[in-house]
Design brief:
The chain is mainly beta. The chain is built from 3 helices and 10 strands; from the N terminus they run ααββββββββαββ. 13% of the residues lie in helices and 38% in strands.
Amino acid sequence: MDKKLYKMMDWARIEQIVYSEEDSPHDFLGGHYVTGGILIQTYMPGVDNIKKICAVVRIGDTFKEYPMELMDETGFYAVLVRSLKKVRYSYCYKIYTTEGESYELQDPYRFDSTVSEKDIARLNAGIHYESYNVMGAHLREKDGVKGVSFAVWAPNAVRVSVVGDFNNWDGRRTR
């Protein structure tokens, strides 16, 4: 295991993800600039047939595959993409299975939240009169990726998850 990468990990937050107690997974899952590059982290529990996960990173017109390291046996993977400066990038995951197959998977944490700070302030104040435009499920396309955004207003909820075959029916993977 890469000791430098291990020391970069926020193990308290990883534990909160594992036990479904993390309330801001966007703050550290996905890709984030850190000293030395871009730290990409994902949580994929309960997937027994994974041989290898790679982050396919696009910087400019160049695509490069970076093998991700299993940092925790529960299914937490990470990779540091070394870069001397902040660069515009995008990425997806490439999953290699034990059966010799591979497929690409978009990371929902790659995209910004569809609920803005202004929306949150208006919801808190009880004056968001068009909340139906941001709450619920909405078909969207972002950076050429088609999908569904899902948002609920549940300020006192302990946990909200969306489950389906896209996350192996595990609510810890998509919150």
